[in-house]
Amino acid sequence: MKQRYFTTLALACAISGPAIAVADSGPAASATLALQPAARSAYAADAAILGVAHAGKRIVGVGDYGVVLLSDDRGKTFRQARAVPVSSTLTAVSFADERNGWAVGHWGVILRTSDGGESWTVQRSDTQEDRPLFSVHFYDDKEGIAVGLWSLVLVTRDGGANWQALSLPLPPDGGKADRNLLSAFADTHGNLYVAAERGMVLRSDDRGRSWRYLDTGYKGSFWSGVALRNGTVLVGGLRGSLYRSADSGHHWQAIDSGVKSSITGMVERADGVVEAVGLDGAMLESRDGGQTFKARQRDDRLSLTGVIGNGNDVLRFSKRGIAAQ
Q: What secondary structure letter does DSSP report for 9?
């Protein structure tokens, strides 16, 4: 497969965890690759956290070195998960309910938990080719989708016991279906959106069975997105780019974010306020459904990697773990 430079959150934050070990049983033996479990560490909370989700009332974050962090007190304290079978970077996590969740990451890894994130098992990996998965979304405890490098799309209808690779249609502007798919998110009707490279957003109305491209008019990469409860869709990415659609992706409007730092995460709080975070300590807030944003920046310029709603507040995460609010 051809080599191509691409921008992802993990690379932007200059992080990469050990993924495999090489075992050699003798001079003539061929090397074999084996996934290694995540180490338990007193410093786990300082690892870069790239994905975060609610598991019922619990908050679950995943990130570098296979770290999985759990909080049962609305983010006041976090502890490391008991057993994670990989030490490669985990990029995203999704829960169907308080117990059943999935995490994805480098080496095409897909992990499953059935105890709220305490322990995890490997459902899929590909150590022959590090084609990472960047995002995952589950509609319920059976149907889910994972997306990643070079238009990799995997779907399951049985809770991840089996994963099927799907081929995307050719993009409308020509060329191959090889865009990096960076962030999957659903609206309240179950329609799925994927923020991608080259200003594209993909949409599926049938749980990943078929797809169409939504052209925003932007040419850079989108790293994050959110569908608000009123149906508005927001996507953000490189150099503070923000685009908004009020009609399910048919038309898009460029929004002034007020920052030049790349946007890495967005969320709608319980009170309807939209918050976004980005590199260089960028923090954005909108009180009118994403039509306008007010921006501010952390004094320490700490690059923020994710955000999750916490009632009428949010929790922010960074390349150095949980970010002080």
A: H
Contact 67, 80 (CB under 8 A): yes
Instruction: Examine residue 1 and state whether it is found in any structural domain, yes or no.
Output: no
| 243, 253 Cβ separation under 8 angstroms | yes
Provide the 3-class DSSP secondary structure of residue 237: strand
Q: Which amino acid is at 42?
A: A
Span 281-290, mean pLDDT?
A: 98
Helix (H) or strand (E) holding 11: helix 9-12
pLDDT at 129: 87
The encoded tokens of residue 258 equal: 């007020």
Enter the pTM of the model.
0.91
Domain count for the chain, please give it: 1
In the chain, what is the straight-line distance between the N-terminal and C-terminal CA atoms, in Å? Answer: 43
Cα angle: 166, vertex 167, 170; to 5 degrees:
155
The CATH number for 310's domain is: 2.130.10.10
